[in-house]
Amino acid sequence: MHRTLHFLRTCAEGFAALMMAAMFLTFVLQITIRYTARLAWLPEMFPILEPSQYGWTLEFCLLLWVWIIFFGNAFVVRDRDHVTFDILYNGVGPNMRRAFAIIGGLAVCIGLLLAIGPTWEKFAILRLKRTATLSQIFGDWIRMRHVYAVFFVFLGMGALRYAWSVLQAIRRPPEIEEHGPGRLDE
Predict the structure, then answer these.
(1) Does the pTM exceed 0.90?
(2) What is the end-to-end Cα distance of the chain in Å, rounded?
């Protein structure tokens, strides 16, 4: 089971890295086209460099950014990678830490699950809306719902992760990370 989870995590990290690479390359393309657009002779010589063909780059970078944020937070970012304000949490005993972990985890889990319904209602209109420029590279099938569909993955996985943390806190009290990553006292 541990190897399977490690493999899935590695795949998720790889997919996030590919999205970052695609966003970076699209950004470089966008900058290149922007600065070569002033050279009127260049598109005449190389029609592929016609600036009007590259309006999609901005919207594609935004799409990738949305996907990187929500996909990454659903599958890649670990709990210890988040910034935490844990002075009160670390100042109490194991039983109170357990209570904090259970109450906080349940609150976040329930909040994420409750957000699915209202978001889905607002999301329904996006099935009709097309993106402004992405049809140039993807065709007419892509809609705004495809751009933001990853948000539901984030809500579901976030709820599952916090439900798991609640189960872990019920089993045993959470431990304090004395010298965790990103601590100022390292």
Answers:
(1) no
(2) 33
